[in-house]
Amino acid sequence: MTGVGSGPWARRGRPAGPGSRLAAGLVLAGLVLAGCSQAPGTTGTTTPTPKAGTAGARTGSPTARPSPAWAPESALLPPDVPRATSTCTPVARPDGWVRAEDDQPGTAGFTVPKDGMPGQIVGYADRRSAGCGDTVSVALSGPDSTVQLEAYRIGAYRDADARLVWRSGDVAVGHRAPPPLQPRTQLREASWPTSVQVPITTAWPPGFYLLVAHAAGGVGGPAIPLVVRDDVDPAPVLFVASTLTWNAYDDFAGYSLYRGQGRTAAAQFVARSRVASFRRPLVGSGYSQLTFMELPVVRQLEQIAAHSGVDVAYTTDVDVDQQPSQLLKHAEIVLGGHSEYWTRRAYDALAVARGSGVNLAFLGANNLWWHTRLESAPGAVQPDREIVYRETAGDPTPPSRPADLTLLWSQWPERRDAAAMLGNSHAAIGVHGGYQLLGAPDWLLAGTGLHAGTVDQPGSTLPLAVGNEADGYVAAGANPKDLTVVAVGVLRGARGPVTASAGYYVAPSGAGVFAAGSTDWSCGLEGPCADQQVPEATSAALRGLTRNVVLAFARPRAGTTHPSVPGVCPPPAVLLGRLDPAAVGRYGSREVALEGGKTRPATPPRAAA
Fold first, then answer.
1. According to a count of CB atoms within 10 Å of the terminal CB, is the N or C end of the chain lower?
2. Tens of pLDDT along 328-354?
């Protein structure tokens, strides 16, 4: 492993070493304690940073004067990376085809396989998404046995949440050794032989799939996710699977982008992987990201499509990086409960989509937080390595390319405040709390039985709607000027009270943007979350609000018919005396142990003496 203080950036004098977990919350505390108040019509948005390669872009060494905060309007759409030509002729699908698909009988008794079972069979695919004509290679490992690999499309079928679309013949499985640990990057990348090849044909409707290995006596192990894209017919709604976030948390064989092996939390953080491969099974915390943060949203979107006829398509964040223009083919982009890791190309594409009138629905929290780079292993069919150093030490990025450093997006040199896209920013971890409706517009509440309120007379409460991680309004952030704080809660903890909030605003293009502000919004749609059981009344409210957002956003520039109205939200200390107790919760110290250097100050390296 490269020693602390090594690498070109450390030689320029930047303080190196592992990010102190104890210090992780200090900068964030300073932000969130500012509260969420904002006078009507004001904005914290600052001057855009010119894109590299455009007139006015900042050049020179990393010791140059820091650039002003980035604004989404400064983004340029990156060019698409060409895909291999498909030999398949896709099926032409009429409007409303998803409703027809979900009107079929599903596979009775299907349940999402669990992780952590004794003697389980694990595996991975050579790609996260596929189109018609692709062949997906799957590698499996487990006790000597014979299995069948089955592919289930997640949906809202008549009597089940999934439909069996394809089944392999008998496949022999044997134990494969865990991949070796590569020095310096702590990369674990399997090179297991292919166990079975899965042909994607016209018989596979586009959708979100789980590949499940069935052994004698039941399910063999955790499912392998696969998105089947529709590269021809654009649907109004596009769901973007957050595969980079799953992969970051995946701790197969004891290593993730958060921790490695060590006796203390600090030692584990030092031993973490700097490069994480998709060529390994998705297990542990990574698998929980899939099951609790993504699948409930997919099932909800399919329910909405089944009842309304509004079609939904699927892609991944890696696909957005490779083909950014696809975002402009849809009216609405939906993200699940936790979309934390973004490449520059994908982030810029999201900003350009918003600027083109495409509506954005963030049904979670802690979005757009860490910058990641991608690379491909030899022979890879898609980029399959995710690079996140979290600090300059050891990063091989040359000093001439500071924008390639994998730091927080809010840090130098990017200075991208998530609030400029979301209207809120990360507030706390280890959260249990609720919301009280504040300035929610009528269209958002239609058919839900909920009512909005004011600061002095808050509306309906949503107990335990806020959980795991929360975002909140920050008065000093680069907030959109017409932000409506839809719901608000207060969380108590060691740093004092902080605000959690959901918001809605209209971009200058007319695009509507909704941010839920809670990672448990996604699992709360159905009730059981990893850390709490959301009451059914709250789940019903979340489903109604989500339905209204999705349907309103299914037309481009939803903000032209659904304007946002800026309001005033007091600081959390003031809110404590006004909110219903159900909207007052807590956050824990887990943020120190879980997130490492998440909130390190955004400063450039110091010049060498």
1. C
2. 999 999 999 999 999 999 999 999 999
Identify each DSSP E strand in 40-134 by its residue range: 122-125, 129-130
Whether the predicted pLDDT of 463 surpasses 80 = yes
Is pLDDT larger for residue 509 or for residue 601?
A: 509
Question: pLDDT at position 435, please?
Answer: 98
| Beta carbons within 8 Å of 442's beta carbon, 6+ residues apart | none
Q: Euclidean distance between the first and final Cα of the chain, in Å?
A: 27
Angstrom distance (rounded) from CA 211 to CA 218: 14
Give me the pLDDT at residue 92, please. 83
Radius of gyration of the chain (CA): 23
SS (H, E, C) 397-455: CCCCCHHHCCCECCCCCCCCCCHHHHCCEEEEEEEEEEEEECCCCHHHHCCCCCCCCCC
Pairing of strands 145-154, 275-277: unpaired
pTM: 0.88
Kindly tell me the sign of the dihedral angle through the C-alpha atoms of 589, 594, 596, 599: negative
Residue 559 carries which side chain, given as an amino acid letter? G
91 pLDDT tier (thresholds 50, 70, 90): confident
d(CA 30, CA 425): 13
Instruction: Provide the β-strand partners of residue 361.
Output: 334, 514
96: tokens are 């409303």
* CA 156 – CA 263 distance, rounded (Å): 45
